[in-house]
Amino acid sequence: MTTIDSTDHWCGASDPPAFARWLADRSAGCGAHLVPVLRAGRCPSGHPAVEVLRPPVRALDEALDVVGTPTEGVAVTLTVPLLQLAARARAGALELGALSVEEIGVDEAGAVLVADRPPGAVAPCRDDSASGTTPAESVTVPVGRPTRSPRDADGSRQLVLAARTVWDRVDARTPVREVLDPVLDAAVDGGADDVRAALALVLAASPPRPVRWTRPLGALFDDGATFDDGATTAPGQDARAAAASTAVGTAAGAALVALARDLVERGIPVGSTRRLPVRIALVGTLVTGGLVAAAVGVR
Ligand SMILES: [Zn+2]
């Protein structure tokens, strides 16, 4: 995942009217799920140009790997904005540019963020000629994100596909999936009404729940052997309840041991990507305690 803010610079030379519509849609009420325009002006050659913020995000696939199997509520949180944007774009109410799946991300707060490439955009023109530049309006333009025309795809289609990817990860036995999956499939290449139908089903599926980055406990020991050993190495037991109870006890104990081992070996999770060594955390706690004691003593 990216960890610091970056910016993209785009020049609207190849289709200035479409580029201007895109910019107008980003300038007011674009919502929290589209990357914001920081500055708009002209490139050194006089074309309309923008600077767009790229906050740090995890790509959606990576985010789903970290989250594990999303609950319905998490899937609702992730897919409602995707489908809302897709529905607006299909209805002509939002100018959405080209988009590859890597440009759909999830930020630290668990919010979906879409970084589409403006329609008609090209990499910014370089300032190798003074012609056509109006100093008051000019935007300094370092080279932006490379254009990737072969991988670009219709933005709204990518958004619906991304929503489908999220729901694919939800437990297949979840009742809503039986109805929702075919509706989402129809919405991939359908019209605005098809996307709205999928959105209505998603909204009715569950209340939204926040995306939590901490790995589920089960992911700390992926092999699962700990559970199986307790459950299967009890020969001659006809009291299944007793065996199950033993297995649960063994599994819970093993889970605690595994968790403690993970904390010692890999550190205490801080945020979504960093871990603090246990030794440093303990020193920090002791120092803080000492300072508090000293402060109390001074008073
Ligand atoms: Zn230009």
From TrEMBL:
The lineage of its organism: Bacteria, Bacillati, Actinomycetota, Actinomycetes, Micrococcales. It comes from Curtobacterium citri. Keywords: Membrane, Transmembrane, Transmembrane helix. Residues 124-155 are annotated as: Disordered. This is Uncharacterized protein. It comes from the Bacteria. The chain crosses the membrane at residues 276-298. The keyword Transmembrane applies.
